[in-house]
Amino acid sequence: MNPGTFRFLLISVVVIGFIILVATLGRRGNSDTLENTDTTTVSYDPTNEGIKFPTLLPDGQTLRYFQSGHEQKDPNLFWEETSDGKRQQLLTEPTLGLIRLEWSPDRSQAIAAINNIPDWAEVSPSFHTNELPQDTTVWYRINFTDQTIQRYDPAIRSIRWSPDGSQIVYIWQDQVLAIAKPDGSDWHSLWDLRNSSTTSGPAYFAEPTWAKEGTIMVQAYPDGGREQAMFWQIDSASGIQTLVLKDHDFFLVSPTGEQGVAVRVVANSAQLELFGQTKQTISISGRLDPTSFTWSPDGTRLYYLVTEETKNRLEQLVLQTSQVVTVTNQPPIWPINALVPKPDNKSLLLFSDEQRAEIQFP
């Protein structure tokens, strides 16, 4: 091979290598961000209006949700929707004043918080609360399988399901943390602040939740205000109480109960403190929507919405790597009222007041 040919081949190899390197770096630089692509679908239909508390059944295909009536003939009902778009009523009785819903793990039941309604409201007798003072929030257990509705004690403030759906944890009169079967039987108190003699503990409870089986987490506050939240862990067998974190705004526990995230919001930023299997503090730039936090079905990812200046973005926190990944900087619909991750961890359903969208990502 003559020297000229060798130099030409050498230069060609270097140039080709440089092009490959630039392309590879370009792909790496964009790997955490996905712009809207042809895999994003948006639909508008009157049947999308007023959808609240959507959830997927374990099959990952069938939706269940509550819908505020978009027509006089279909007011305030629960629906089930199959992947081909066919719908059927889950409950034959209308519901007014629904402000919160906690689906059971298998989605066959739900615990609903309903505001007391005025005497003139048209509502099923099963949800009738007019014998109570107005502006009272009352919790109900709805069984969609046998169409039964059970009203809980009006003094109950908040209820959550255990990970397997066999028990509930609840707050009674702000100062008693208790567990029971879903029908309210076999209840026993875990922590009664009325009998507490300590001055360093909480004065009242706010939100309970289950961590892993046998362990309860509860958000509580000291006497004097709700500025400094305390997060306690209680062993349901021994009753041992352990202070886990304090000085955060709220906390979340994954569906499996293995991972927790405490959130502190500061002006136009937020800090996520991971506790459980993964421990780390993560900073988020922008104004966080605290109502948007949604776990993936397997509890390995946490999705949420952020607004920074005039831009909106949808992010996911991958718990195993503590990596924050921008799913999209251009959500196809806005404002987003609900996120419903699919079990494949590669797609999400988004719901606004009138639209729904499905977004797929790597």
Could you characterize what this model shows?
- With 362 residues, this protein is mainly beta.
- It has one helix and 29 strands.
- Strand 10 (156-161) and strand 11 form a beta hairpin.
Write the layout of secondary structure elements.
Elements: H1 3-29, E1 41-44, E2 51-56, E3 63-67, E4 77-81, E5 87-89, E6 98-103, E7 109-115, E8 137-143, E9 148-151, E10 156-161, E11 168-172, E12 176-180, E13 188-192, E14 204-210, E15 215-221, E16 229-235, E17 241-248, E18 250-253, E19 259-266, E20 269-276, E21 280-285, E22 287-288, E23 294-295, E24 301-308, E25 311-318, E26 323-328, E27 338-341, E28 347-351, E29 355-360
Note the main attributes of this structure.
four-stranded antiparallel sheet, five-stranded antiparallel sheet, mainly beta, single chain, 1 helix, 362 residues
> Could you give the count of β-strands?
29
If you average the pLDDT, what whole number results? 81
Cα separation of the termini: 47 Å
Query: Which structural class best describes the helix and strand composition?
Result: mainly beta
Outline: globular
Helices and strands, in order, run as: HEEEEEEEEEEEEEEEEEEEEEEEEEEEEE
Q: What value does the Rg take, in angstroms?
A: 25 Å
Beta fraction of the residues? over 45%
